[in-house]
Structure formats: structure tokens, C-alpha cells
What does this fold into?
Amino acid sequence: MITEPIDLPCGVTLPNRLAKSALSEQLAERSHAPGDRLVRLYQRWGASGCGLLATGNVMVDGRALGEPANVVVEDDRDRTRLMRWARAAQSTGAKAIVQINHPGRQSPRSLSPHPVAPSAVPLRGLGGVFATPRALTVPEIHELVRRYARTAQIVTDAGFDGVQLHAAHGYLISQFLSPHVNRRDDAYGGDPERRRRFLLELVAATRDAIGPGRILSVKLNSADFQRGGFTEEESIEVARALGTAGVDLLEISGGTYEKAAMMGVTRRESTRQREAYFLDFAERLRREVDIALWVTGGFRSREGMDEALRSGAVDLIGLGRPLAVQPDFPRRLLAGEVDRIDGITAKRVGTRKLDGMAETVWYTTQLWRMGDGKEPALGRPAAVGVGHYLLAGQLPAAVRGLAPRRVRSR
It folds into this structure.
């Protein structure tokens, strides 16, 4: 099953059913351009065997970063670098799409002392790391729609096969969808139909920008997993609207910074047995929509992947952390050399409040090693990974992030 190609509605054929899902590389250069380290990393992943590669966050506004070393694409200044990045990802036949994003209120105070969001609702329980956002005006929302579309046009003109709009994990689009964060009572909030208007306007503008023959994907939460947040019922309604709007591929995830379900925090026993975090919801969604579904999180064996595909619940198997520790795992899996991946274990430092961060940054530092032309260091303790992340990544990147990239006039 995983070896079978899949034809998307836009006319693009993926050579197999394995997809590298977005991982936040945090490898942009000082100017927030993609550089040699990203190219080197994607050359490695381009040879991984995956039929589709999705990049990590590419931000539409240099004044709004989710992390200090995010790539930013606002105009054509980095066209040559983007072309190199695309060619690296596609070097052995994979298709490559760029994940486009805006953090909204999920931009740390050190980067965005005055963040924006649908409404002025602060994040809870994160120790003051994030400032209370300011509610966007309607003209600002219209400008954001133009920014997303412009970024999509630039990266596809540079050679990428399409884009993914990040509408999950509590970032800006997800904030508009959530009744917990979106407390507006205008054209962009007040009921489910108006809360999804921003996303649907982005889909329409993005399709116009990239044309009919490019991949248009959306990453959508199954739910926010928090009281008063986005629910599975609303997610199904959004998915129906996305199918009608011409989206080619819908990736299912879940959670926000306040409730990180995408990291497996809320896994049920049935999920552990079936590997994938969101497979139960995908089965429910499949009964409601015809759109191609992509599920990421938890897949570790060929048996689990083939069974998910055979059931019809999903069309594409997403891989994240396996690609951080064994970048050739998909190729070996497709060739029948292995039937599962081992070594994806919890990385802990022994302090409960820090363990989630430690696990995330441990995997991030493996991406940095591959960007430097090295092999992943699987035996490295979690605490060493945290130290590397802070000293070699976050501190110098934060200094860069404090001087926002200059926004060019339109």
C-alpha cells in the first residue's frame, strides 16, 4: 500500500504514500533567508524515499516570527536561495511543498512584544513568555490574506510544487477557527461560519496565486483539546468547506501551545495500539468528506501504515520524528529492508515542566546536525540537547530576531 502512487486533484502525482511532515528546522540565516544548512538538510531528506516533503514554518511577515530562526518570504529578494532549496528537496523525485504560516499570538514576547490575533486573548499557563495580543482590524486581515497569497506565489514560482496553509497547532489561522481565541462579532467571528471565513479567503487567494496545477494543502486541527476551543464537529464542517473550495490534501493534527496534542500528550490507549495519534478522527472524517487525507504522528511500522491506508481512513502517511533520527527510513521501508523504526523514545531531563521542551529540542538539534553534514547523535542525553539548543541556536537566533527583517513597501 505505501508503495502506491496517488493522483491529487490538481494533477500532481505523488510517487508513494509516505510524506515528510513539517518539522520546525529553525535554520534560517541572519536575514531569515534559507541558506546552505537548509539546502543540505533537504538534500538528505530528498533522498529519504518520501513521495512528498513539507518544509517547516515559512513566515509571511518578518515582524511576526514563531521562532527566531524562521525563514521569512515576503518578496522576491531570496528567489535564488528558494530555487536551491526546492531543487534539493526534489533531487530524487519527491514533490515538495512549503508550509506557510503566521504565529498570531504564539510569538514569544522576546520576538513580538505586541503580537496580533483575532481577539485580545492571552495564552494561559505559559509563564508570561507570550504577550497579550492586540485584536486585528479588518483592513489588517485583508492585508494578511494578500501576504499569504504573495508568499505562496513566490515559493511556487521558485520551483516548489505547492504550499500548505498551517491552520493547526494554535497559530493564526487556528486562532480564527477557535471560539476560545476568536471572540469577534463581525465578518470574521461570532459563529462557526464567520470564524472559518479567514481560512476560506486564504484558500481562494492562494489558489488564484499558485494556479490550478500546484498542490494546495491545509493542516487542520481535529480539535484544540481545551475547554471552549475548536471541536471535532467544527473541524468536520471546515473540512467539508475545504473540499468544496478545491483543497487537494488535508493533513490532520491537533492541539495548541496550551494543549500540545500533536506531541502525543493526549493519546488514548486505542491510539497507542493503532500507532497514529489522529486515526480515529480520520475515520470519522472519511465518512463525511472525499478530500485526500494525510495523518501524521505515531506511525512506526509498515503494518500500521498499510492497515491505515487499507482501511480507507487515510491516503497519505505522515512521518516527522523518524526523519529526524533515521532520514533513510522511508527508502528502506519501501524497499522491504526494514518493517518498522525503533529508537523513537521519550527524551526526558527529569523535571516534568521541562520534559516536553527537552523532547522537542532534542529532535530539533538532530536536524541541525544534518544541516551541518553530520549524522544524528542518537545517544546524546536530553540535557545535552537542551544545552546545545539554547547556546548554539536560541541565544544567537534571538539576538537576530530582536532586529526584525525590514518590510518592503508594496
